[in-house]
Amino acid sequence: EFDEANKDRKEFVENVASKDKYRLALPHLEKFVQLKSDDAVIWDLLGRVYSVLGMLDDAKNAFEKADKIRK
Questions:
Q1: CA distances from 1 to 8, 33, 51 (A)
Q2: How far apart are CA 67 and CA 30, in angstroms?
Q3: Is 69 exposed, middle or buried (0-12, 13-18, 19+ CB in 10 A)?
Q4: Exposure on the CB side of residue 57, measured as CA atoms within 13 A
Q5: Dist. CA 7–CA 49, nearest whole Å
Q6: Secondary structure class of 54 (helix, strand, coil)
Q7: Which stretches does DSSP call E strand in 7-69?
Q8: Which of 3, 42, 43, 45 has the most Cβ atoms closer than 10 angstroms to its Cβ?
Q9: Whole-structure pTM value
Q10: Helix axis angle, 2-35 to 40-52, nearest 10°
């Protein structure tokens, strides 16, 4: 039981740390797409960041913009 609790705690801390990295990246990606709005790869990356952060409407919009650029 002790090992399982430590494993759960470690996974929680890693998840929070990972989300913090996404939160830190978000304003940079948002600024980049303003400067270079025709880059599908960055729109995809922005969509993934939004998804991880639970911003699902924003993620959908970013993925749709990436798809439009590719067409």
A1: 11, 47, 33
A2: 17
A3: middle
A4: 0
A5: 25
A6: coil
A7: none
A8: 43
A9: 0.78
A10: 140
